[in-house]
Amino acid sequence: MLRYSVLHVLKMFHDYESTNTIETSAIDKRIAIPNDDMLERHQRFKRGETTTSLVYVLPFDGRLKSRSLCKAEPQKSVDSSVPSRQGSLASNETDKPVGVISSSSLQLVDYQRDFTPTLLRAHRLDQLSEAYANILSAVGENIQRPGLLRTPERAAKALLYFTKGYEERVSDVLNDAIFDEDYDKLVVVRDIEMFSMCEHHMIPFMGRVSVGYLPNGKVIGLSKIARIVEVFSRRLQVQERLTHQIAEALMTALRPRGVGVLVEATHMCMVMRGVQKVNAFTVTSVMMGEMEEDAKYRREFLMMIGKH
User: Fold this and answer.
1) Which segment of 37-51, 69-83, 91-105, 184-198 scores lowest on mean pLDDT?
2) 75, 167, 282, 291: most buried by Cβ count inside 10 Å?
3) How many CA atoms lie within 13 A of 226 on its CB side?
């Protein structure tokens, strides 16, 4: 919840009064003024003669909506051209304040947004730590013994790291690293190490990802391909969906003529439990665009990653 200092409230009220004349009778209807002294202070405030001593202002509901003041129509809204560090993200559109606000208020909004992930993370850590303490107790452990005193907290931090992809977006990790380039041959980044979590048992699976694309007048920073893999692998996943998400993200961001993704992984849910097959590998692939339509490009891709 946003909190505004007295100076913020006074400035916003003064700006509103300068463009919207409020009749004294209207004020009297909204607020019962107990004595002449308070009314005189209010009149002095309206004339701009107020000192830093006692000041009378209308009640403010804290939601920063101009309609809350005498039901007047909003005079102006936040300039959409004013940039903010997270303003471009669709998920934050509902956070934009409505009504007349000052530049200092805009800074306050960004300041609060910067702290939101930290506060959310602390809350999630508390919840996960409590859950892990319950798990340890449920399996018969003594959570008060020295070796386990901080285990719930450490396990909670580890799980948040394993699933940090939920907090990341492809547009953020790309950071505009897409460049015009007259190159139309196949580009391949192979053997990108990958770690993920099986969504069925919450047990790790790990392996390598190879990605190839056919440029269409633009190329992407090579490290960004590995970062796209990281965004989608650091979640609860199944390998089939992971493969498709990597290919789809590259197609959407780069608009190439074609994309190919091949993932090879070992699933610990097949190694540590169940069938317990230590040497089993799972291989998935997705081809899009010309990589799917033309067998020549598929063969070239597979040859370049050592699978043909």
Assistant:
1) 91-105
2) 291
3) 10
β-strands 187-198, 236-237 pairing: parallel
Find where tokens 């390598």 sit. 208
For the four alpha carbons of 252, 239, 304 and 260, in that order, the dihedral sign comes to negative
Q: Are 27 and 131 in contact (CB under 8 A)?
A: no
This prediction has a pTM of 0.62
Mean pLDDT of 183-188: 96
Is the pLDDT higher at 26 or at 108?
Answer: 26
What CA–CA distance (Å, rounded) separates 233 from 199?
11
d(Cα 158, Cα 51) in Å, to the nearest integer? 55
Whether the CB-CB separation of 257 and 289 falls below 8 Å is answered with yes
Token output for 229: 């893999």
pLDDT band at 10 (very low <50, low <70, confident <90, very high): low
Residue 261 near residue 243, CB atoms below 8 Å: yes
Which of the four pLDDT bands, split at 50, 70 and 90, describes residue 40?
Answer: low
Report CA 109 to chain centroid distance, whole Å.
16
Identify the helix (H) or strand (E) that includes residue 271: helix 268-271
Query: Can you give the residue ranges of every domain in the chain?
Result: 6-107, 109-165, 171-304
Cβ pair 169, 117 in contact under 8 A: no
Q: Which CATH number fits domain 109-165: 3.40.309.10, 1.10.286.10, 1.10.760.10, 2.30.42.10?
A: 1.10.286.10
CATH dotted code for 171-304: 3.30.1130.10
Residue in 191, 204, 274, 261 with CA at minimum distance from that of residue 233: 204
75-94 pLDDT, tens digit each: 444 444 444 434 433 334 34
Give the Cα separation of 202 and 269 in Å (integer): 9
